[in-house]
Design goal:
This protein is of the alpha/beta class. The chain contains 24 helices and 16 strands. The strands form 4 sheets. Strands 11-12-7-6-5-13-14 form a 7-stranded mixed sheet, with helices on both faces.
Length: about 625
Amino acid sequence: MPDSPYSLWINALTDKIGQAVKELTSSPPSPEEIANSISMQEGIADISSSIAFRLAKQAKRPPDEIASMIASALTGMSGVESVTHEKGFVNVHLSRGTFSKEVIRHILSEKESCVSSSIGKGKSVIVEYISANPVHPLHVGQLRNALIGDFVSNVYELCSYKVERENYIDDLGLQAAEATWGYINIAKGKADSAYKFDHWLGNLYVEVNNRMADEGIKEGIASTLKQMEAHNTETARIAREVSERCVTAHQQTQSDYGIFLDVLVWEGDIVRERLLEKAIDILSKNGIFGTPTEGEYANCFVMDLDKVSDLPEDFKGIKDKIKVLKRSDGTATYAVKDIAFHMWKFGLLPNVFNYREFLVQKNGKPLYTTAESGKKMNFGAVDLAVNVIDARQSYEQYVVKIALAAIGRGDLSRALKHLAYGVVDLEGAHLAGRKGTWVGNTADDLLKGTEAKAAELITSRMKLTDEQKAKIARSVALAAIKFDFLRVSPEKNIIFSWGRALSFESNSGPYFQYMHARASRILADYKDEIDIDKVDYSLLAGEQEFALVKKLALAQGVIEKACREFRPNVVTDYISELSSQFSKFYESVPILKAGNANDRDARVALTASFRYTIAVLLRALGIEPADMM
């Protein structure tokens, strides 16, 4: 796919500036530094560069003198009306007709690919997300994980990466053992079919935790965990069955939210396929790993953080620098399982797994799972791995990065990205799994409640059949939830508010669906086909028209920035700015009722460009654009 005209133009401008300043200093700015100094402006100029300030001290010249020299070098550049300088800034005034033509022709030619980028072409990435313990329904915190992971995967695909969407299932952890013990000893192997399985299991899990003061129960759970790890026991078979039923119920929730995956990787399969032993064999060849023969950690396989030369700041205040990877009784900790898993992700360990089809998702796409028997498939062995994991797990993620660096794969340590996110609460609720405070506050409950509120709102706005109302209420509810969860920088905590999320008047998912619908109605009433070769783009030189053109030109760069930084709020902020600019354009100039056909055609082409762009951006957030609101 071609780069956007703005990207190409910025590259040309960067080269021109680089040529103009290369003799000023012995350490001229890099193309990246020059590009970062360039920004789209409103008012004084269309585009400005502050690079003269970066060079002034080294060149021992005033910034405005350097800016003057750069401005002279840019005069006559294609697409530029004029170049000025003021107080050290280089100010570029674009040829509005030429720039509008390039931007709009690109969007209307590329359509659904209008913001796509080639920056990831030839690269592959695993995005691991959700990864909820299979013991209760997905609560709103885990929903945030799922929505962020879905967004990151969507953006990577827009940037031409080959994306593997992966869910890691911790079926051998203590929580899974507690749920399995309860299933066998309290429920006697029978679930209440009146409930969705994950909701039923979650209540059972809470009951088990309420009984944990009984030492006999603790011993029973410990025994259950040991039998689960043995794999060939009846308890292990039941545990996997319980976990799979819970994960299937999770999939129902995910599909209701339009979230679809490629593969499930089970911790039990990692252990059964002996990836841990393979990983430990590689780790043991490095000096920071070893097995003490005496003291507190005798006969444990450990990582000694005191032997790490470039220990991250987060670890330097930790009192105990010994990280146990394998206990003296031979049982593995979560840390070594995670290290082995990431060695597999990066192709350092062989793809020994068998795979089978777990289920077919609502979008028709099969979901595969690692399994004891099945077929070989090409999962893993990627260039980049992104883990969407609670910010409270940052320490564990650093341990994996340190291990990769210690075995001489600093490149892979850097290629492992932890996308940390803060906790989520609903208005008036604070959620915790073991205490069962998620009851009534699950992802299922949130969608059901938001749909009901959305139905009330749209009934007051539109006359609809029951079928239409149900369809639009679901679409509006999903838009409300997704935008409200994604509009905040991931590391920050959020409190979900129905009033804010369901607003049709301002910064919300339903509002931006409405903006798309407004553009759709204009295009539906336009009776002719848009001929991009016959549009007179010079007619878009007015302030509101050209301001919208400039904002549209930034879309591909926004997607690339979101891809690099893993921040959905980069896209939500841009959608807000873009919609605001479209609203100003819509309210200030007539479109279909323009004074002549040429004005009308040019403004319709601009409207269509907005509609294509916002549609792609909303879908990146997992929000389906609406044509009727």
